[in-house]
Amino acid sequence: MFRKRRNQKRNYDIVFFSRPNSVFAEAYRKIPVNLEYANVDKKIKIIHITSAMPGENKTTIAINLAATYAELNKKVILIDLDLRRSKIHRYFKVPNDHGLSSYLIDQLEYEQLIVGTEHGIDLITSGPKVPSPHVVLRSEKFQKLLEKLSEEYDYIIIDSPPVLLVTDSSILTKYVDATLFVVNEKISRKNEVLSSIRLLKENNANIAGIIVTGKTPKNGHYYYRYNSY
Amino acid sequence: MNGEGKIRNTNVQEFEGGFTLVELFQYLWKNLLLILGIVVATVAVGVVYTWLIVTPKYTSTAEIVFTINREKSTGGNFATKISEIKADLPNWVVVLGSEEFITEALIDASEDEESGITFNDIQELEKLVKKVKGLITVTNPKDQSLIKIQTTSVDSKLAYVVTKYVSELAAKVIDFNQYDNEGTIILAVENRLVTRAKLPTSPSSPNKILNVIISFLVGAIISVVVVLLKEQFSGVFKSSEEIEKLTGYPIIGEIFEQEYDDNGGEE
Amino acid sequence: MIDIHTHILPDVDDGARNFEESLKMIKESIKQGISHIVVTPHIFSPYIKCKTKNEIIKIFDEFTKNVKDAGLNVNLYLGHEVSYHIRIFDYFKHGEFLTLNNKNIILLELPYDRELETFEDLQYNFECYGQSLILAHIERYDYYSIRKLKHLKSNNVFFQINASSLMKSHRYFKKANKLLKAGLVDFIASDIHYNRINHMQEAYEFVTKNYGQDVATKIFYDNPSQLIL
Description:
The structure holds three protein chains of three kinds. By secondary structure, chain A is an alpha/beta fold. Chain A is built from ten helices and seven strands.
């Protein structure tokens, strides 16, 4: 039905870095561990983050998850594959005058594609908007790019558009090792989530797990205080 | 750290399944517009039905009371006599409601030009009698020396005329007087039309206000049911457990809203 | 007063056709109380044949000499009125147009027919490269409501309206006033071409009378001198 569109200026803050001892950051630190336990037999390197609909905080999760791996001293690269509504570059305050889309149409060299950021996360921004992103994603050049990145990085985190909006997410499933599905407890509708998951399964996605966001503590108690060590 | 592979932090208490009373109110509040819409729609239907579709019916009532005139009556034992009269009234109820009686009353009515009762032959009369029989109700409230005659019809004049002539005929015909062998009146019973038939000006049905109230209640019930169904199927998830159960995938991370943060400050 | 948007350079665009006209225009400006003029010929305009940056620089150097020789006492600065072009950012990176007076501020003309959907991305990229933008004669963009302009306003985005729009019978008089009332006007300039009258003095008096001396001083003196001179 109707979803309130938030038209105010967003806050492009990476909580994991700005408040590393917060409960919020702690929640992220658990994810790599849980991910491993949930997928003991598989080697997970290329992780794809998606959700059912826009506005469910998927991008925030992708960024903070990359930050989590960086803190563990892993070599991690973050790819903004939401070619229609890219915003990762704004969190890192880097320009997006060129990026993945320019690279895939041969207007950019590989060396210029990867942007280093101050927190040790490497970044590939989306680049200028292109008319048909899904065509671009299916290209061999993109596949080869992922192969090359796999050789150089421990983790590749891909932020992609919502499943129900465009087919991009479904296309990506064959290029990635694991899909993490984001459910926002406040906003995500049951039927939309279930449809998305069905769609992903039809495309042979390996859904490694679900990240629940937008949780509110129901009885006033929540995570115990957790100081850093 | 969390080395045992516990997937969820169990410090957080969560409710499972169904919905709590609080959640019910939340659902209702969230869907207030929908509820109002449904209630307004049902009330509108009710109003349209009541005011525009249903034909109003009119009722005319007459009551005959039977009392013993003690001064005129020479005999005694009035208590017993009254009981006898009361015991007999149910029989009269049957008589008054019979086709024969109604026929007589209608013939009387037809002699008055203004009554609007006319028939050209026996068949028409019989048809009319049958129709009127369905409209008329004759009753004797328990243990009272009273006969009540009520006619309900979409035609207010008909209701009035039938009640008038049936009640007047009944008052004439029913005779509880008793005489002795010489013709002296032992028991004088008066039939009094305490309530005379009147031309009804306002309908007895439908009960407009009641209908509106009923539509409102029906609307309220329907809307609540709709809202509950809607929330169950397309609502949001209530807990991580529910997400895990319905999707079939493990929860590997739970992120709380930033606003509720933040008891871990700076280093 | 300082006039930041003019087409006084002779025979380079749809402005002054020859040097005599340029002189006339400058004399008129001086009469109106203008002491500093930023010369901003069109570039990349779809309607007008424009000269290249290097040609303009040469022409400007000669122009300032000639104006001095003609005995006119006025300070001249050089910039461009840059029309939006799909490759504008490339042109920027290759230094193919001029900013205003070599400062990090660009006078930008947007298309008239339709809102540029990627404007915010473009502005963000410019900001990443340290450039502020002045949107020229914004009252003319019918697709921008006051609310939208409030949303676009930021530390790096400025709005300019034309002096002629403050004349009572002008088509955009109402909108120009709405903008002033909303505090959205940073600059008022003449945008003088050969066939238009210079209204700067009138505009100044209008603003002073209706919006106060402080506002007028900020718009006609403080902003231009702080940001451009």
